[in-house]
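Suppose a colleague, Dr. K., hands you the sequence of a protein chain of 261 amino acids and asks what its three-dimensional shape might be. Before reaching for any lab equipment, you can write down a predicted structure in token form. Begin with the sequence itself:
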Amino acid sequence: MADTTSEERRQAKVAASMGSISRAGAADTTAEYDRLVSQAVELVNTPALDFLSAKERKLFLEKNLKKAESQCRRAIELDPARPAAYYALGCAQNASADGMAAAASFVKAMEFAREEFSTEWANAAMHAFATLMANASAPRPAWWADAQLLVYSERALTALPEATLTLLWRAQVLSGLPLALPPLATQRSAEQLRTAATHYTAVAKLLISKEEKRAASCLAALAELGVVAGAFVSAIDLVGIAAEGGPEEAVAAGLIVPVPH
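The predicted structure, expressed as tokens, is then:
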């Protein structure tokens, strides 16, 4: 009886020791994951020195982005169910002009965000939407449908109300103007179009490029007038007309026609 008890105690000690080793190993893995992601983010955000030539700057940035991607992939191998490495990988790929790969990485980051509609999720989601919009040939996720985009864009804007990308996302989905969007499931109301116009105006104030500011302002005016894609002309035509003579003049001349709602 005494021998059995002694053996049970020995096994319990061994089990406790293994548990401590396992916990220590998990902590080490988490620390290494965080270190790799942190380094990757730093590499993506490190600008080339001003005194370098154009060629040297290009090589410097390419080297940093390649190393950042490598760090992210090592982190994903350590823990493939955490979103941070996918997000950092998307940033590196986007900076390398690989928009299709970046879109896939940002979508992955969305999927693995701990809480859907959290700030972490919204940050990944707004970049996923932006890269998908910019890369028409990138595979579309299951949520790439009008009804779901209305929900996601609203939740992302709630989480990040002052981010340029979330404001633009919400404005685009509400107005339905960009051709890259899926077909509208419901006709937009006057209130939705006015809200889109408000968001486009806010985006225009946040943008630096004069061309981008003018484009956003034109879209705001078009949404305010109730003009949406499919109103006899495409979204590209609408922006072009607005840039040429202004949306009010185009409507007055009958070049574009507001959709009744």
